[in-house]
Amino acid sequence: MPEAACPAPSPDGAAAAEALPKTYDPSGTEARWQAAWEAAGAFHPDPNAPGEPFSVVIPPPNVTGSLHMGHGFETALIDTIVRFQRLRGRNVLCLPGTDHASIAVQSILEKQIKAEGGSKDDLGRDAFLERAWAWKAESGGTIVGQLRRLGYSVDWRRERFTLDPSLNKAVVEAFVRLHEQGLIYRGEYLVNWCPASGSAVSDLEVEMKELDGHLWHFRYPLTDGAAGDAAGDTAGLDHLVVATTRPETLLGDTGVAVHPDDPRYAALVGRTITLPLVGRQIPIVADAHVDPAFGTGCVKVTPAHDPNDFAIGARHGLPLITVMAKDGSMNAAAGRFAGLDRFEARAAVVAAMEAEGFLVKVEPHRHSVPFSDRGKVPVEPLLSTQWFARAEPLAARCRAALDQGEPRFVPQRWEKVYRDWLTDIRDWCISRQLWWGHRIPAWFVVSETNGVISDATPYVVARDAEEAQSKAEAQFGAASRAAGRALQLEQDPDVLDTWFSSGLWPFSTLGWPDANAADLATWYPTSVLVTGFDIIFFWVARMTMLAGAFLQEDGVPVGGRDTWIPFRDVMIHGLVRDENNRKMSKSAGNGIDPLPLIERYGADALRFALVREVAGAGQDIRLDYDRASGNSATVEGARNFANKLWNATRFALINLGGETPASLGEPDPAALTLADRWILSRLARVNGETAERYGSYALGEAAKGLYEFAWNEVCDWTIELLKRRLNPRPAVEGKPLSAEVLADQRVARQVLAKVLNELLVLLHPLMPHLSEELWHGLTGAPEGTFLALQAWPALDAAALDAALEAQFAELIEAIRVVRNLRAVAGLKPSQAAPVVFVTGRPELAAVLRAGSGDITALTRAASVEVRKTSTSARCLAAVSGELQVLLPIEGLVDLDALRGRLEKDIAKAEKEIKGLAGRLANPNFAGKAPPEVVAECQANLAEAEAQAALARQRLADLGA
Predict the structure, then answer these.
(1) Whether the predicted pLDDT of 632 surpasses 80
(2) Which residues pair with 242 in a beta bridge?
(3) Cis bond upstream, residue 525 (ω within 30)
(4) Cα angle at 565 between 564 and 571, to 5 degrees?
(5) Measuring CA to CA, which residue among 287, 279, 281 is closest to residue 262?
């Protein structure tokens, strides 16, 4: 750090510095500003306020959740974006909320009730839901409180919950309209069934796990015996061999499939085999789905228990036979295996196939098995009568919009993933066999089916029970009365998939279906969606699909908007990886809880560390973490940066004479020194670069650029360069400062105040609490005035001077070289020594001469000489680009002792060179060591050789 001593505080400055404690306390600072922002409604925007609208609705975390590092990362990204847009004068809405998480909440409550010795059915639906709402009120807001700890600048007054009455109204309206458009239907289809929770689950609620299993090969006999008229490999064949990982499902086989171009089985297509253990005759069909190169090229087809088989069965008219009940046991269609658990049945079927001579072989087989994320058991593809949304008509609108560039993906490569999913899409199962959630707005006319709900029971879809009664009366009333039956309705007991309600999130939260809602009119479409790549399919696409159903008519956006797409940009972020670069996950047990890091280092430090780690949009980031100590060097580095800014601001308060940036005003350009003009040019350039980076979602680059500017150029150089001018000494002791010196002192104060003031605004999106605290200390802003609501500083284009920036960077490097040479010479800090610069470039020479006062102050130079040719005096020398730096030391140091130190340095370097060169010459090392180890050894060798050469040159410069 600096050689110059810190000046004594002025009386006025000492008083001003009391606005900031000597030590930065992130916990107290952050809590204070979070409370102040919220109490003042700082982030509660008015839809009628001026400014271009900018809006974000945050991805709603599950109400059951607790803060994890993914939340911390996503929050930091979103909040950086919205805070910047607020500073830019936009009318910003950042709307928070949580998702009701049907399966997770119901699972928690059922476990509680079971532990009490009961069941949800014992309670009944109404009592169960009362308990669910009580649980939500007591425990469900945990994650909201944790998100507040991060300083999320959301409008908490507009907080939404997916089961709020207003959002339930939107869900019901959406269901009714889609049904009226023929886009929702009820039918039997293959779904992911979770036997543990007793419900269908979405694809996202399925987690693929790699397990060690087996591949059983079974012989299926041809019904009519040997294939006597077959040719080639199948001549005389009396059976086919199929392989399966799920033997229990063969009881439901209704076909065997081969590829249509497979010559081995061409003559067998159309024949039948007799299904072992069952005796059912099933056909051999040709289907292009079959991979002839896998196994024997023959595939058993079980349409009721496998999605691919379901598609094959549909193409060939194969019957669907379900052999499993919804609790995971075998049903009556499984014959002698009925009543067995599915895994017990697996073993029993294998044993029976072996006993009857149908088992060919068993192979170890590692494969992916789908597990229910909530039930923690393997899901079972089962036929079930469910509610479905027709996906293709919804997806077609989204593909057309994407052809027009809507939405825009950042990074752009994720657009293909989005398009692919919209192109290869199945109808969406939207019903769940749960009680906690949005109840399906359909009423079954059970009086038509003896008081029970069956697949044949007619139904009406309505917004409420009264409307349902009216619709049912119109459709069935007369016939019921004629048959002497009273009309009886019963609402569907199922609820909707949570993704259905969250698919409406960008507009239901803004007041839809009320077309006149002010929030909807102002902030829809939203500006940007920030989310992970893993839910592009399940959430991003569903939001665009549902928006297309309700926010446009015949391709024209409703409400006079320019688009119906719910977000203009989709910013896809990566994952947070652990200290070993592994993906964090619950199953791996390597997650990092952000709350202890916040407690230790502060929320701002964690936020800044996470964003600064981003190498590019969409890239994963790595967070180092010592699990034993709870330390993170990355977050600690961000905390050190916060301390650096704190100390710099305290220094300014001590040295601004009790004035503020406003009272000091702008400096006169004619009075600026070279260093002043340099830092003001750098400030203007960083202002423009940072605004562009924030605006284009290059947030990692923005954080890195501000860090380098603040730490190196402002704290390490500008403050050092300003110190002597801020606290000048009179020409003669005891005499007052001259008017010229006082004028220069004021310019120095103006420059320091301006730089720090603007820097805090630029940093605010990344470190909101710290910057708010320091800005208040620096400006003396009154209570109720917030940096968060100030204007982004205007870019001072007149201050930009690229040539000066480049030349001053050379001056800074020259000062570094002089300091290094002084260290080599062993000069004491108080010992003055002449400095000679040699350059043939006139513009560089001019900068060095103009900055000679700064060079003198920062290097203890006895004199500064700039010349075109070198000197013959005994000097230590170094070269920086086109500049030679000479430090004449004869008479200042013991030259013999210096020669001795240099000779020791050379000997040490030569020893290291010998060892490294020998290691690289060893074939056992060069040929067998990991490439990164060899590369490190080569780099160390090059560095040692360079150090030896430098020491030899310095020894030669000293002469005999």
Answers:
(1) yes
(2) 218
(3) yes
(4) 155
(5) 287
